[in-house]
Amino acid sequence: MTTARIASFSLALVAATLCTACVIAPGSNRPDMSDLERMSERAIATCGAGNVKEVNTKSFSCK
Asked: If we measure between CA atoms, which residue out of 21, 41, 25 comes closest to residue 33?
């Protein structure tokens, strides 16, 4: 898998994660996107593309 494909999959994974009923109120503590992107890349490397169930800034889970 090429780096570009991994990057685009990571971006899609981050977008999907942010769209899953997560409401961020103004002034609330939002997660640092770089932490979420880093954890997404770790999840893909560990679980394999298409096998990541959930990702947040502190952990991830595989299907």
From this structure: 41
